[in-house]
Amino acid sequence: MTLLEAPARESTGGGLASAARNRLQQLLAFASLIVICGFFSVASRYFFTYGNFTAILFSTVVIGTLAIGTTFVIISGGIDLSIGTGMALCAVMSGVFLVDLGLPLALGVPAAILFGGLIGLVNGINVSVFKIPPFIATLAMMLVAGGLALVLSDSAPIYFTDVEGYVELSTGSLLPGVEFPNAVLVLLGAALVAGVLLTKTVLGRYTYSMGSNEEATALSGINVRKWKIAIYAFAGLFIGLAGVMISARLGSAQPATGMGYELQAIAAVVIGGTSLSGGKGSIVGTLIGALIISVLNNGLQIMSIPQEWQNVILGCVILVAVYADMLRKKET
Q1: In terms of pLDDT, which residue wins out, 327 or 39?
Q2: Which of 83, 147, 207, 221 falls between 20 and 30 A from 90, CA-CA?
Q3: Does some domain include residue 132?
Q4: 207 Cβ partners below 8 Å, 6+ apart?
Q5: What does the alpha-carbon distance between residue 186 and residue 313 come to, in Å, rounded to a whole number?
C-alpha cells in the first residue's frame, strides 16, 4: 500500500465502519430537516404550501452554491472567508461585462463565473505558495473583494434592465406550465457536477487525501501545492456562479451585498457533516445543511420571530453541529 493509499483510505473513514458513520451523519442531518419542517408545519399553516416550498428552495440557491465550493476547501483542510464579498464582486463584474462592456449573455456570464475562479486562484496561491494561513489569506481577500465591488460599481447598484434574458437565468422557468425557478435547477446541476468530481475523480481523491494527512500525501509524490491551488480555484467558480445567480435574482448587482453569506455557507457545510479538521464530508450533506438553514430562516420569519432571535437560534444550531463534529473525531 502506497503512502497515498493510506490517507485516501483514512479520508473515506478507514473502511466500512467509517462509511457507515458518514451515512449515519447524513441521515441524522436529513432527519433533523424533517423534524424542523414538521415543527413549522404544525406551528404555521402557511409553511407547508407549494409556494413556500418553492420559496425555500429559491432561497437555498445562493447559500447552497457557495457551500458546495466551500465543501471542497474545508475537506482539504482549509477555510475560505472571502466567498461572501467575492460573490458580490462577481455580481458587480457580471454588470461590468454585460452592462458596461455590452458583452453578449453567452460571454458575460461565463466571464463572471471565471472571475470567481480567479479569486479562488489568488487564494490558493497565497495559501499554498506563500504559506499564508487560510484564515488570514481569505480574510484579506474578503476585504479586498468587498472594496473592489464598491470601487468598480461606484458604490451604486448596476441594473440589468437592458440585458435580455439575464434575470430569467434565475427567476424564469424551463419547466412548461410549472412555476419552478431556473436557479434551483442550476443549483441541482452544480451539486451533481461537484458530487461526481468529489467522489469519482483525482481532484476529489486528493481533496480527501490532503485533508486527512497532507504530509503523507506530499511524501507519496503528489504535488500538494498544485492541487491545493486547483481546489481553491475550483471552489472559486462557485463564488462566480453564486454572484450570477444573486444578481439575476435581484435584477441588479448590489456591491454592498455578500457580508454574512460566508458564515451561512460555512455553517451549511458543517451542519451537513463535513469535518472542520478536513478529510470528511459530502455534497449531499452540504445540500441538506443549506436546506436546514433556509428552512429555519423561512419558518422563523413566518412565525414573526425577530431577526435578532433568528440569529441566536442559528448560532445555537451551528454550535450543536460543531460539537457533533468534535464527538465524531473522538470516536475515530
Answers
A1: 39
A2: 207
A3: yes
A4: 72, 75, 76, 198, 227, 231
A5: 29
Task: State mean pLDDT over 105-126.
Answer: 98
Asked, for residue 307, whether it belongs to a domain, the answer is: no
Q: Is 144 exposed, middle or buried (0-12, 13-18, 19+ CB in 10 A)?
A: middle
Residue 178 belongs to what H/E stretch? none
pLDDT digits (tens, 9 = 90+) for 67-93: 999 999 999 999 999 999 999 999 999
| Residue 214 within any structural domain of the chain | yes
Q: How many domains does the chain have?
A: 1
**Which residue type occupies 263?**
L
Dig out the grid coordinates for 318 from the structure. Answer: 451551528
Q: Which of 233, 145, 238 is nearest to 191 (CA)?
A: 238
pLDDT tens-digit readout, 197-252: 999 999 999 999 999 999 999 999 999 999 999 999 999 999 999 999 999 999 99
- Whole-angstrom Cα distance, residue 42 to residue 22? 31
* Residues spanned by the domain of 208: 49-259
Q: How do beta strands 252-253 and 158-159 pair?
A: antiparallel
Please check whether residue 280 lies inside any domain of the structure. Answer: no
Q: Please, which pLDDT band fits residue 2 given cuts at 50, 70 and 90? A: very low
Residue 80, beta-bridge partner list: none
Q: Which residue has the cell 475550483?
A: 234
33-50 per-residue burial string, b: 16 or more CB within 10 A, e: under 16: beebbeebeeeeeebeee
**Cα(198)–Cα(76) distance, rounded to whole angstroms?**
11
For the CA atoms of the chain, what is the radius of gyration? 20
For 120-162, write each residue's pLDDT tens digit.
Answer: 999 999 999 999 999 999 999 999 999 999 999 999 999 999 9
Question: How many angstroms separate the CA atoms of 261 and 97, rounded?
Answer: 24
Pick from 277, 211, 270, 265: nearest CA to 239 = 265
